[in-house]
Write a structure and sequence with these properties.
With about 140 residues, the protein is mainly α. The protein has four helices and no strands. Bound molecules: zinc ion.
Length: about 140
């Protein structure tokens, strides 16, 4: 249902922009839902790791399951941090959509390429700024 966006943005901008804004805000809301569901799942996973470690009553060093469990837990923690950052990015994108600054790079105020927004609707930076800030 999003395929109509491409090719429709040439010529007069305003009517298609309105339609695009609604489609985008739905797309972002869906993405935020997914991210939040993923965070909840990861937090549940982490709680399960904690519970099973507490239940076993052994420390990581002597328990053969310990190190693997600790590794999985830190993986879950890392994924959670990434997903939290992604959710925050989506929220900001929704705010910018309402403020009318969506699709504008927050750093150089240049236009973010439509192809980039298609691939990453929550993108706040244009490609050149994103590659500059990435370390
Ligand atoms: Zn930029």
């Amino acid at each position: 249902m999003t395929t109509q966006i491409a090719g429709d943005t040439r010529g007069t901008k305003s009517p298609s922009t309105l339609r695009t804004t609604r489609a985008l805000s739905e797309k972002l809301a869906r993405e935020l839902d997914e991210a939040e569901a993923q965070i909840a799942e990861l937090e549940l996973e982490m709680a399960t790791f904690l519970a099973s470690r507490n239940a076993s009553g052994t420390d990581d060093a002597s328990d053969p399951e310990g190190p693997a469990l600790a590794f999985e837990r830190s993986q879950a923690e890392a994924s959670r941090a990434l997903t939290l950052a992604h959710a925050a990015e989506i929220r900001t994108a929704i705010q910018r959509l309402h403020a009318g600054t969506y699709g504008v790079c927050v750093s150089c105020e240049g236009e973010i390429a439509p192809a980039r927004l298609e691939a990453r609707p929550s993108a706040a930076y244009c490609i050149s700024c994103a590659s500059k800030t990435r370390r």
